[in-house]
Structure formats: C-alpha cells, structure tokens
Amino acid sequence: MPSRLGDAPKTEAERSRHRDRTQGWRSWYKTARWQRLRRSVLKRDGYTCQATGVMLVGKYPAPNSPVVDHVRPHRGDPDLFWNEDNLQAVSREYHDRVKQSIEKRGRH
Length: 108
Hints:
Layout: H1 12-22, H2 32-44, E1 66-70, H3 78-82, E2 87-91, H4 92-104
Antiparallel strand pairs: 1-2
C-alpha cells in the first residue's frame, strides 16, 4: 500500500529544507537583525535559562546551549517575532523537549 504521506521528507535535513521553502518567515532567523536581537536577549537574561535556571554555556548541540525562544509563538506574525518582550533565553534541552511539547499540544 502506498504511503498516505506522499512525498514526506525522509531526513531531518530534507524536512528543514521543505520548511524553509514553505514557511517564508524562517528566513528571518538568518538575518543580521535576528542575530543582534538574539545577542541582546541572551545578555539581558544573563545567559541563564529563564525556565530552569541552567547557565547557557554549552555549544550547539549541547543540552545547555542557548536558544532564544518566543514566549508566545509568532506563527509568522512579524510583530510577535521581532518583539524583544516576547523573547526569552532558554536551554536547548528545555526548548526541544518541554517547550515544543507544550506548543504541540496547543498551549503556551
């Protein structure tokens, strides 16, 4: 029986490229403006995870590497995306496990 998913991406790299093509706002993460904003948030939050208190001293992909997270998911809304008050420093482990799980259940 053929897959009901059709041409679903088979690897994480393919999935990421597909999302880049279909979600235009993902390119915002690759801008100098985002990098400046990200650094500003990390400094403001003292390189400390705002959810767990862990120091964000690791280098990706370490669990304690820094991620700048949108408190309220932006879903492509530029006002929410660029709003520094909607951003927080969190650990990669917290972001990839807890925060994304919460968002997938429709909560924030």
